[in-house]
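User:
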Amino acid sequence: MQGWIKLHRKLMENPIWDDANYLKLWMYCLFKASHKEHEILVGNQMVKLGVGQFVIGRKALADDMNRRVKPDQKLSEKTWGRYLKNLEKWQMLTIKVTNKFSIITIDKYRFYQHEEDEPDHVVDQQLTNNCPTSDQQLTTNKNVKNVKKEKKIDESEDLDSGVVTHSPNQMLEERFIQLRNSGLFLSAEDYQAIDQVIQVGVPLEKALEWLNECFARYKPKYSGDNISSFKYCRKYILDQFHRSKRSEPPPKTPDIDPFLLKMQKIEEEAKKSRGETPCPS
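Assistant: Predicted structure:
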């Protein structure tokens, strides 16, 4: 990969600046985006890309984003896919899904990568109008509510297949953000904690129920104290899950017909009288 890109200082006002994974993903998208129209061969298919576009698959995205990352800090393919979907939700890019790959388009790419002869004050105004900043759509409760009205359940699209699914992870994420009532971003640790709850085998219905309980029973230690991380909720949910498993009644033994039991006993006694060794039941 050759060449360079331009970054505007207003990026520091964008909430993704405060999250290393989102910032890294956004930089990756800018690096991958084409600066001119051209065609590429994807498998046996010729794909025409415009300015600000690139082709990606879910596995390739995860491989690139996890390169040179410590094993315990790597994120799954699904998690990186959700990060990318959130960038689309926040109107930073759009995703066109095909049955084999996805075409990513950086929204307002020409505004980010303007020509040298374009006045800076014009670009500055364009960035202000088109990029989500700390006082725009990403951090206002009003817009959070609007997002929830438009999509009560956040849909996740497989970047490779185009199949829309209602992921249990997504439903837990949405519910946690709603209960937390502060910010749209989840940290890498939050995503990992949610993954662990699902991987352990906690039923989604019970996980949502215990998540609600966790917030309802939380007692703040001081003014402004609240639950900010899903790691706290993970412990509560897993404790409840293991407690419910221990309290499950043992499996019932099948009822044995008294007549058959009596006949079996008579048969065993008859075998003993004939000197035969009874077969173990």
